[in-house]
Design goal:
Number of strands: 7
Number of domains: 1
CATH superfamily: HAD superfamily/HAD-like
Structural class: alpha/beta
Oligomer: single chain
Number of helices: 10
CATH architecture: 3-Layer(aba) Sandwich
Strand content: 15-25%
Order of helices and strands: EHHHHHEHEEHEHEHEH
Length: about 210
């Protein structure tokens, strides 16, 4: 019986990559997207890739960041899937290597129990190109999940995780039910279930 469900945010609960939407405002979408793709394939260190991508956002106004983050497209079926899980008394949480400007806003819309992500540093309302937070490293999601399970007294056998990229591998280690959602091959190899259609409503059908 599943008691905890942890979802990645970018390209899982949300249809796209937050940082790519932000980079587009500066005309740097192609450069940032190329680094993002390498990171999600597991070809470059996630921490280094995150630092490199955020550095390119230096100078962007925080007001514009919030405007973009509050208008991101949710993945088809996100609302329905979260509602179905919560109806079954399952805690639903988001782990993201992205940014709190986006995840906290989405958490409110979706009714998530919590969101864990990173924080863009700003000075007088302007991004400095620096970032910090809870999800900075390739193993951050796994470490956070282990701590959350200990706090809630939930076992790996009672845990569902859903993600799409290499930085989701670490949380796959702590869950018996592992869904690779429209995912990179590196994650599919570690999954118990694979969903290749952009519709999260398939998940309750196959795991509950």
């Amino acid at each position: 019986m599943i008691r905890l469900a942890v979802f990645d945010f970018d390209s899982t609960l949300m249809d796209g990559e937050t940082i790519d939407f932000l980079a587009a405002e500066l005309g740097l979408e192609r450069e940032v997207a190329a680094i993002t793709e390498q990171a999600m394939q597991g070809r470059v260190d996630f921490f280094k890739s995150l630092q490199a991508r955020v550095a390119l956002l230096e100078g962007l106004q925080m007001q514009k960041v919030d405007e973009i983050c509050h208008s991101l497209p949710l993945m088809p079926g996100a609302k329905e899937t979260v509602a179905e899980l919560k109806k079954r008394d399952i805690r639903v949480v988001c782990f993201s290597g992205g940014f709190r400007n986006a995840t906290s806003h989405a958490a409110g819309i979706l009714g998530l129990d919590a969101d864990f992500s990173n924080i863009l540093h700003e000075d007088e309302g302007i991004l400095t190109g620096k970032v910090g937070g809870e999800m900075m490293f390739s193993d951050s999601k796994g470490q956070m999940l282990e701590r959350l399970q200990s706090l809630l007294r939930i076992k790996p056998e009672e845990t569902l995780v859903v993600g799409d990229g290499a930085n989701d591998l670490s949380m796959f280690e702590y869950a018996a039910t592992r869904v690779a959602f429209c995912a990179k091959d590196i994650l599919k190899k570690a999954a118990t279930h694979i969903v290749d259609e952009k519709d999260l409503r398939h998940i309750p059908d196959i795991v509950l």
